[in-house]
Amino acid sequence: MSLNKDFYWGASSSAFQIEGANRADGKGLSTVDVRPVKTGIADTSVAADFYHNWREDISLMDKLGINAFRLSISWSRIYPTGNGELNNDGLAFYDRVIDCLLDHNIEPIITINHFDMPQALIDQYNGWLSRKSVEDFARYTKTLFLHFGDRVKTWLTINEPLMLMYNPGYNGSHYDRADETTSSNFLILHHILLAEKYAFKLCHQLIKNGKIAPVSAFQNVYPLSSEYEDVSAALTAESILSYWALDVAVKGSYPKTTYERLNKLGLAPKVSHADEIIFQMDVPDFIAFNYYSSIHVGGYHQTEKFIPPFFNFPLFSVDMGEERKTAKWSAMSSDSNGLVMSARKLFDRYQIPLMITENGFADTEEPDDSKKINDQERIKYLQEHVSACQEILGLEIPLKGYFVWSFLDSLSGREGYSKRYGLVYVNRDDQDLRDMKRIPKQSFYWYQDFIKSQNN
Ligand code: BG6
C-alpha cells in the first residue's frame, strides 16, 4: 500500500489520560480530577506518569517512527482557576514536551481542550452551561496561540463536543441527566460551538500558516431494518449525533429540519442574532474525527439495549450490541467499512480535508510468561483500518493523517486501567502502581514496520 509522503502516521493521547501530576507545579484541579472514580487509584493523580516520563516516552515514539503526536493541553495547568492568573510553570512543561517532539521530527498536533474543564469554572458558573465559558475559553486559547504558535501549526479545538455534552464527569454539570437528554445538554453544546468559532478566528489571526479543526466523535449510523421507522430514526440520529456540531463549525448553522424537531421537544438552544453572527465567523481548515465503530439505530423504543446515559433520546434508540459493554468493544463491533463511509459522508457534505485523530482497540491485557503482549487482535483491527485509509485516499478524498488511540496505555475515561488501548503497555493497574515500566506491545512493532514500509 502506498500513501503520499505528507501523510501523518501518528498516535494520540490526552492530558488527563496520561500526565498524572494533577496537582503539580501550580496546576488547578479540573472536572476529571474530582469526579468519582471507579476503583482504587484509577484517577488522574498518576495516570501513565507522562508528566515525569515524557523524555523517555518521546524516545519510544521516535523508535516507533511516527511523524506526529496528538496531545492535549490541560487548561488548569495554564490557568489554574480557568480565568485568573496565568501559571508559567504549566507553559514551561508543554514547552519542554513540544521542543523535544520537534527535536525528534515529530510534529505536535495539539487539542486545546480534551474533556478536562477547570473545576474552578464549574464552581464559579457551572462551566459550559454558562455563556461565560465562551469568553474564558477564548482567552485561554489566545494564550496558547501566542505562546506556542511559532512551533505548533496544527490545532484541534475541543475534543468530541457530543461526548462532552453528555458526560457529567467531563463537563462537571450538576444536573441529573442520566435518564434522558435535556435542553441543558444542548446548551452546553451550544456554548462549546460558540467557543470553537473564536478558536478558528484566533488561529487564523495569530498563527502564520496555522491550521485548525473541530474534533468530531462521528457516528456512522445504520438503520436496524429497512422499515420506514428505523430508516427515518437512523437519519435523525446521524443528523443529531454527527452533523449538528459540524454543520455549525463548517456551515455556520444547525441542520434545519433537525433543529425544528428538537425545538418542538424543547431541547434546541435559542440562537440569538448575536450567536448567528458568531456562527458565521471563520470556518475550520479541515475536519478531525475519531472513529472506533458504527452504531445501529431504530425507532424510539425499538430496542432496550441503550447504553445509558449516552444517546438516550426521544427520537431514536441506539442498539450498540451486547459487545459494546465489554472491554473489547471497538474490536467486537469492528467495522472498517464504516470508516470509509464516514469519510465519504464527511467529505461530500463539507468538502474540506479530513484527519482521523483516533482509532483503536481496547482490551484487558497483561504480559505473558515471556513478558510480551501479543496483541494480535489489535494488529488485525489496525490493519483493517489503515487499509480503509488507502480506500479513502483512492476515492480522492484529501485525508491528512491517521492517529492510533493510543500511544500509551492510558486512563480510560470510563474504565480506568482495566481497559487498555496503548501500543505501549504501562505496568500498573487500577489498584497497584507497580513500576510503571513501558513495554512495547506486538502492535507497536507491527505499526513500526508498517510506517517503515510507507517511507520506502
Ligand atoms: C474517545 C475519547 O471518545 O474515546 C478518548 O476521545 C477516550 O479520550 C476514547 O479514551 C475511549 O473511550 P473510553 O471511555 O474507553 O476511554
Automatic annotation (TrEMBL):
State one molecular function term (GO): beta-glucosidase activity
Q: One matching Pfam family, short form?
A: Glyco_hydro_1
Q: Which GO terms describe its biological process?
A: carbohydrate catabolic process
Task: Give the signal peptide, or none.
Answer: none
Q: Gene3D superfamilies, from UniProt?
A: Glycosidases
Gene Ontology CC terms: cytosol
Does Hydrolase show up as a keyword for this record?
yes
Under the heading InterPro entries, the entry gives:
GH, GH_1_N_CS, Glyco_hydro_1
Any keyword Membrane? no
Q: Which UniProt keywords apply?
A: Glycosidase, Hydrolase
Q: Which family does it belong to?
A: Belongs to the glycosyl hydrolase 1 family.
Full protein name: Glycosyl hydrolase
The source organism is Xylocopilactobacillus apicola
